[in-house]
Amino acid sequence: MKKQLVIAATLLLAACSNETEQLQNKQTELKASIKTLKEKISDEKTKKISNSNTLSALNKELDLTNDTSSTISSEDYAGYFNTYTQAMADAFSEYSAIDSEASALKDDAAVRAQLSAIQTKIKSSTDAFNAQLEGKSLPASYEDIHSQVTEANKEFIAGMNKIVKGYAASDRKTFNKGSAALNEGINKIDSIQFQS
Fold it and tell me: In 3D, which of 131, 134, 130, 138 has the Cα closest to residue 73?
């Protein structure tokens, strides 16, 4: 019986030794797999951080772009101003051509139509100028100029409204107030000093 026990113990040890070797091989394989997975996780974390940093940088750049797009350059403002002044000069030239007829306050349909057209031209010129600047920051060198232009625009619109109203009603006082306001607006524009 002792022999059988020794043989059984030998077989058991041989079987366990075989299984231990297999378990050690599996353990080695699992350690290698775990190491590979840890490296993949580390790579993915690095990619995520990199993508997050890139996204953050792009968002900052977009914010800067949006901020700068709301500021008008000096060249753009000067271009808008030149277009505006040319349109206003055309309107004043048209008014000068009929000024003597208009100041006579004779109820002439052609003069009334011309005054109305000039009134519309002045209003649309000021509206177009303001629309180009709406929601945007002005260059610092043009803020004072723009303030003067805004004041002159009020005079132009109010003056033409009074001229048209005074002409239609043959009201000399209202007509003269309109002419004075129109001249005041022109004087304000003429007095603008551009800084070089």
Answer: 138
